[in-house]
Design goal:
Order of helices and strands: HEHEEHHHE
Radius of gyration: 15 Å
Structural class: alpha/beta
Distance between the termini: 20 Å
Number of strands: 4
Strand content: 5-15%
Oligomer: single chain
Number of helices: 5
Length: about 150
C-alpha cells in the first residue's frame, strides 16, 4: 500500500546504535538490566505512571534481583521518566539519586540531545548497578533484550 504520509523515525539509525551500545556497555559489569522505551505521545498526566505500565508489560519486574530500570521518553510530548525496580531504586541512593539522574537527562533533552542524554543516563545507571549488583554467574547474563522499544 502506498501512502503519501510517512511517519518520521523517532531516532536515526546511528543514534539507535549508540544507545544500544551504551546499554551493552552498562550491563557488562552488572546483573542489572536497562531498557529504553520511546513513543511520540504519553497518554498519562504523569509519565512515571506510563513508565510503570511499560515496565510491567515488558516483564521487567521478573528479574531475579529486582534490579531492572526503564528509561521512558515521549518525544513529541517532551516528557520522560526513569523507573527502577525496588532493589535498584533503594540501593542506588533512593530519591536523591533518581532526582539527580533525571535532572541530567532533562538538561540534554532541553538541548534536543536525545541520544547523548539517553546514553549518558544509561552509563550512569549502569555504574550504580555495577556498584550494587555485580555480575552473578547464577543469573543468565542478559535477561532482557537490549534493543530500544518503539511505541506509537
Amino acid at each position: 500500500m502506498f501512502s503519501l504520509f510517512r511517519k518520521k523515525a523517532m531516532l536515526d539509525p546511528e543514534s539507535q546504535r549508540k544507545i544500544v551500545a551504551s546499554i551493552i556497555a552498562a550491563e557488562k559489569n552488572t546483573s542489572g538490566e536497562i531498557r529504553v522505551y520511546m513513543e511520540h505521545h504519553c497518554g498519562y498526566l504523569d509519565p512515571l505512571h506510563r513508565a510503570q505500565e511499560i515496565f510491567s508489560s515488558l516483564g521487567m519486574e521478573k528479574t531475579p534481583s529486582r534490579n531492572a530500570v526503564i528509561i521512558y521518553i515521549a518525544l513529541t510530548d517532551r516528557q520522560f521518566a526513569l523507573f527502577g525496580d525496588n532493589a535498584i531504586y533503594e540501593k542506588a541512593g533512593g530519591a536523591e539519586f533518581w532526582k539527580n539522574a533525571t535532572s541530567k537527562l532533562t538538561g540534554h533533552l532541553k538541548q534536543n540531545e536525545v541520544a547523548e542524554g539517553v546514553c549518558n543516563c544509561i552509563l550512569e545507571l549502569g555504574a550504580a548497578m555495577a556498584a550494587h549488583f555485580p555480575p552473578d554467574m547464577n543469573i543468565k547474563k542478559n535477561e532482557l533484550p537490549d534493543e530500544i522499544v518503539f511505541g506509537k
